[in-house]
Amino acid sequence: MGIRFKFNLVLLAVFAAGLALTGWISYGLLQRNAKDEVVRNARLMLESALAIRGYTVKQVKPHLELQLMRVFLPQSVPAYAATETVNELRKSHPDYSYKEATLNPTNPRDRAVDWEADLVRDFRDHAETKELVGERSTPTGQSLFIARPIKIVDPACLACHSVPQAAPTSMIKLYGEANGFGWKWNEIVGAQIVSVPMALPIRNAERAFRAFMWSLAAVFLAAFVVLNLMLGWLIVRPIRRMSETADKVSTGDFSRAELPAQGKDEISVLAASFNRMRRSLQKAMQMIEQ
Asked: How many other C-beta atoms can be found within 10 angstroms of the C-beta atom of residue 197?
């Protein structure tokens, strides 16, 4: 078993152990980073929806007051405007879903399903909670969600949601009197929820993990080749030459030139020592022959 083989065997063992440890640590970190990135994007989507709601209330709806007395325009409702705008955004980010889940909505599409209703009740029971981030099981796998409470803090909302008599007639004609009323000041009526399949952060993490591991393998391969070239040139080649010379000298053949011994590294020191031993042995052989 040659020195090169032993060296490569140790190098491969060290690399395998390092690769396994690095892979285990990096995979966990990449999973967390991918999840954090998805949560950041979800928060950005929630902030965008809030900005759209505020813009609709402050700058759009006031200009439609007269028209709303004749015909109800869903586009003037902050929740509707936010949902429609985010739905446009979802065309380029289809993995994200947005809903303003409400316990008693005017628009049936906003009605909270069981797990969304649980979030709303959780916000009601813990008024100090401003955001919930979690995971839930779905028929298609795990899903990540981020939710924020919808609280009635704008008096303009009660104009359409207090009692049917106070709501625009055109809205009653469109949605009826059965839903979307009885809201109260400072009441939490729903939650803004962004949902993302866990497959998305997992897919992102695995893509980054594969790229990292392939890069690490490429670096090791380059290091493996360079180290083998250095080993062959600086160690194996001089030792093989020294071994061949020693074989010749052991049979009394001193025809080969002395080994190069320039430098101060261990191989050069060994070559210098071998040359001294060779000269001494040659002199001893000459003295015996005389």
From this structure: 18
Tokens for 78? 């902050």
Do residues 146 and 126 share a domain? yes
262 and 136, same domain (yes or no): no
Interval 158-169: pLDDT, tens: 777 778 777 777
Round to whole Å and give the CA distance between 46 and 158.
Answer: 23
pLDDT at residue 240 tops 70? yes
Residue 282 within any structural domain of the chain: yes
Domain around 35:
29-197
Higher pLDDT among residues 134 and 246, named by residue: 134
Other Cβ atoms less than 10 A from the Cβ of 114: the count is 6
Residue 145: burial class (beta carbons within 10 Å; 0-12, 13-18, 19+): buried
Question: At 145, which helix (H) or strand (E)?
Answer: strand 141-151
187 in a structural domain: yes
State how many domains the chain has: 2
Answer for the pair 270, 245: CB distance below 8 angstroms, yes or no: no
Pair (87, 171) in one structural domain: yes
> Using only C-alpha atoms, what is the Rg of the chain?
39
The four Cα atoms 214, 220, 224, 230 give a dihedral, to 10 degrees, of 130
